[in-house]
Amino acid sequence: MPAPASSVLPRPKVLLFDVNETLLDLSKLKRAVPKAFGNKHAFKQWFGLLLQYSLVDTVMGAYHPFGQIAEAALDMTADMLEEKRLPPAKKQELVGLLKQLPAHKDVPRGLEMLLDAGFRLVAFTNSPRATLDEQLRYAGIIHYFEQGLSIDTEQLYKPHRYAYQAALQALDIGPDEALLIAAHGWDVAGAHHAGLRSGFLARPGQTLYPLAPLPTYQGKDLPTLARQIIAGR
């Protein structure tokens, strides 16, 4: 829930935005992955494995780029669903769709509202920096952002605490000067653990982690969330 109406929160200097699913619509992948396997459960299985094994790398102290984990997760998806593994070219085609995703329809308006209110906007992703730039250009929203940050600099995936701290260091700000906006409960939880405030964008099918603190703000779309952040309550 938003902060009580009687309280006004300090204004953050920078808004950090998660990218996949928060800003970008994954519907294209949600159609393509099940079609490739001939199995309606394939996307959820694959995307869950992609997130899980990026964290496995981080916990082990290893690192592979997000796209490489995505391809490996397609093989794991095939094995777990007892389907035939996809040929390398098909895996590359599917993972390549991560660079060809449109923005959610509410995103441009929400970003405009926040820019007009004087906030600095920064994209912050688990994808490599080159992928991030391609994604934002394809979606037509790169011009809203002051810069993009990727975890590939430190090679620690969100929600590792230091991934957020490294972003703050790159921006030369403290945790109390930043607010993370994400559609994933694990990202919101990670930001809070690192001392940042957060805004949860409640995309369909997404939920908060019940054992983590509540986000500072919540909204069903970005303009709704933007109005709360601008008001500071």
From TrEMBL:
Protein keywords: Hydrolase
Classification via Gene3D superfamilies: HAD superfamily/HAD-like, Putative phosphatase, domain 2
InterPro entries, sorted: 2-HAD, HAD-like_sf, HAD-SF_hydro_IA, HAD_sf, PGP-like_dom2, S-2-haloacid_dehalogenase
GO MF: hydrolase activity, acting on acid halide bonds, in C-halide compounds
Lineage top rank: taxon: Bacteria
Pfam families: Hydrolase
Keyword check for Hydrolase: yes
Family recorded in the similarity comment: Belongs to the HAD-like hydrolase superfamily. S-2-haloalkanoic acid dehalogenase family.
NCBIfam families recorded: HAD-SF-IA-v2, HAD_type_II
Protein name stated in the entry: 2-haloacid dehalogenase
Species this protein is from: Hymenobacter gelipurpurascens
Lineage: Bacteria, Pseudomonadati, Bacteroidota, Cytophagia, Cytophagales
